[in-house]
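Sample entry follows:

_____
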Amino acid sequence: MRTSKLLISIALLLCATLGTHVRAQRVIPGDERTDLYFPLLEGRRIALFSNHTGMVGDKHLLDILLENDLDVTAIFSPEHGFRGQADAGEHVSNSVDAQTGVPILSLYDGREQRPSRESMQKFDVLLVDIQDVGLRYYTYYITLCRLMDACAEHGKPVILLDRPNPNGHYVDGPVLDMKHKSGVGWLPIPVVHGMTLGELARMVNGEGWLPQGRKCRLTVVPCLNYTHATPYRLPIAPSPNLPNMTAIYLYPSLCYFEGTVVSVGRGTDKPFQVYGHPGLKADRYPYTFTPRSLPGAKNPPLKGKLCHGEDLSSLDEETLRQKGIDLTYLIDAYHALKPTGARFFNSLFEKLIGVDYVRRMIVEGKNADTIRAMWQDDVKRFKQQRKPYLLYEE
């Protein structure tokens, strides 16, 4: 009898352990938790802010809403468009979703790059389901902030279906000096903020970061089985130039090249996984690529020019995930091009990095570790500031 009870106890313990392991592996995004938000949508006209990443299994959320007789009257689509094929920075005009006939409204037909009053009158509640990658210069959160502000002004509630952040396991980079606020940096947050879109939206409301301190009525439907330490592979590329996890993990380190003369691989099959320039010497940089016009990169920098540089696409993903922001690529290219007399930086650089001192320190010859040390106090302060808004364990 005693042996039997012991075996049963061991079996139950194994089942519990296995069950915990299975749950830990199966992250459930907010859009799958329909029991929590369908009741909030019934009898209301819905505007959906989403794009090609708004998938629930093998179906788009838009299709699921319509199949359940919910009244979707409008779609808002961010940079790259509802189907994800527009160029970076390309403003998507009013149109109609060909698959469903639901009108797609422009985000930019009103003042201050917000939807117009006429567009805001076409719905009762805004539903958000979009995959972010957790960086200050990745613009989906800026579009969300503008929509939150419009909803606050017009008294429309916002329901955000949260998704994991693939870069949610760390915080890194300087906090944006707001004199550099722009379309690629809108909030006083580090380059890598380590928050989900739902957490960030809560912080925007709580910190009064919308214009005139407005707050929208916000409901966040959280993920299940997710912590900030949970590795999460995106099932769908969030935009044309972040095609895989290698690009997503390198993005915090390579995007600053967009503020220089160096190509970061737009217009190739390895965007944000390579960098190069025609002036880099072939003996030191034997890897070559030639940017060309591609979907999502119709007119890439250095189009048609043979570039010598580095191919980082085969680097170990887990190493990249743990590395954080690495300025060595940028510093190396700067010093390699300096003898050519090329004007390396442009005005976009400060908008991306968010502060003045990084360019100055690179020019002065400082190394990556010395520069990274400059923003560690920023990181510590921000991690304390964001604590009240976190939905998941760190």
